[in-house]
Amino acid sequence: MIELKQVSKRYQGQAGMFSAVDNVSLTIDDREIFGIIGESGAGKSTLIRFINALEQIDEGEVWVDNERVDHFNKKQLRQHRKDVGMIFQQFNLMNNLTVEDNILLPLSLHHYEDTIAIDELLEFVGLADKRHHYPSQLSGGQKQRVGIARALITKPKILLCDEPTSALDANRTDEIVAVLKRAHQRFGMTIVLVTHELDVIQNLCQRVAIMEAGKVVDVVAIQTNTAFK
Ligand code: ADP
Ligand code: ADP
């Protein structure tokens, strides 16, 4: 379970300090697909990055599986981050590495007890025929599928998705939503997804937090769109 308790984060803005995240409390259950929606600048990216401590909080508490993440030392943090995968709007692939080597990259950085075989993963994201290609030879949808495979290879308990479809057109967006849905069915991780796109929330998420100017103004259960595969 992920718990944010009265979390705030301030930045220096043009007119002085302001709260990018303002006294937010949220609980996200294990295996849930939880969305965070709001306009640009609402604080979504900052909020999601508290979960793997890529962003430090100024006030409040961040708990994951009954451990206080914002008090972790370096060693605990390294261990925690091994349990959290992340995918990004701009994919963040290494352009000088092939598809296969991009996906294997996490394994060269840390030791993981349990991983998914590269062949199985390439098959799972539909890139078996692209394994020796470079990112520049791929479409956006394909690049994001590499990003998803790279995040999945370490079998994370939590998958953070920061605007995963915002650089993609509608068809590629549906394709990525479908891959994330299949990944959730197969691996059963908790997914926390930030987006400004309502259709992504409706097609994928079980609940959504609505953010405005740093605050969560509502948390709503989503009626699953069963027409979507
Ligand atoms: P969202 O993901 O909803 O677009 P962000 O969390 O990226 O929002 O940003 C929230 C607010 O905080 C925005 O006004 C943004 O400009 C500001 N912000 C984000 N990161 C920084 C930073 N490192 N320094 C100063 N301001 C920042
Ligand atoms: P997808 O395969 O994700 O549905 P598209 O329909 O956008 O992707 O692309 C079709 C094909 O065109 C892909 O197999 C891809 O290899 C190629 N392609 C798309 N965009 C680019 C690009 N920017 N550079 C090189 N090849 C591309």
UniProtKB/TrEMBL annotation:
Belongs to the ABC transporter superfamily. PROSITE patterns: ABC_TRANSPORTER_1 (PS00211), ABC_TRANSPORTER_2 (PS50893). Signal peptide: none annotated. Residues 2-229 form the ABC transporter domain. SUPFAM superfamilies: P-loop containing nucleoside triphosphate hydrolases. Part of the ABC transporter FtsEX involved in cellular division. Has ATPase activity. Essential for cell division and viability. One of its GO terms (biological process) is amino acid transport. One of its GO terms (cellular component) is plasma membrane. GO terms for molecular function: ATP binding; ATP hydrolysis activity. It catalyses: ATP + H2O = ADP + phosphate + H(+). This is ATP-binding cassette domain-containing protein. It holds the Pfam family ABC_tran.
